[in-house]
Amino acid sequence: MMKIWNTSREVREKDLGENLFLFIFAKELDRNRVLRNGPWNFDKALVLLEEPNGNIAPSRMLLKFAEFWVQIHNVPLLGMTVQTGRQIGNCMGECIDVTQGQEGECMGRFLRVRVKMDITKPLKWGTKISLPSGQQERVDFRYERLPDFCYNCRRMGHIMGACTFVDDVVKSAKDNPYGSFLRVIHDSAKPWSTSPKRPSN
């Protein structure tokens, strides 16, 4: 992971057992950047990071949340706003940020939100939004830097053959409604051709 993180100073690793590791950063700036720029994947699997609480044993830490950048596609022009982005982000989990342009606008090919998600729940493929006119439109989600996930139950942490959430009939079905379309192939894609600003909360 240290090579992937490309930290300016050394990072020490302690094996705590049960697939838990403690990373000790020599520089706080490196630690904050790693926590801020996730999610991180190792061997196509999601790496969950959380600042440790000295009052809780590592084995009892609730490691089930991760932050993802999510692209929201097919949004009508009237819905290309920070408010809409936050509303949609909060329906997926906790909205952390909404990407904005140089003038604070959100007009572009898609809305882009950063969401803290419970990774034990199925990935959402989209939702319906209500416009000021009262009209409802369906929007679609695409996840940046999404690790391997199950096309049957839409959960991360396993693939279809190892899924315990659906029966063998569903596993053997040739037509599956979910798939790689939930993943952004090029995670450098942005709503604008120029780099937008990302206001801090």
From TrEMBL:
Alphabetical list of InterPro entries matching this protein: At4g02000-like, DUF4283, Zn_knuckle_CX2CX4HX4C
Domain DUF4283: 2-50
Protein name as it appears in the record: Uncharacterized protein At4g02000-like
Gene: LOC110752262
Domain Zinc knuckle CX2CX4HX4C: 117-164
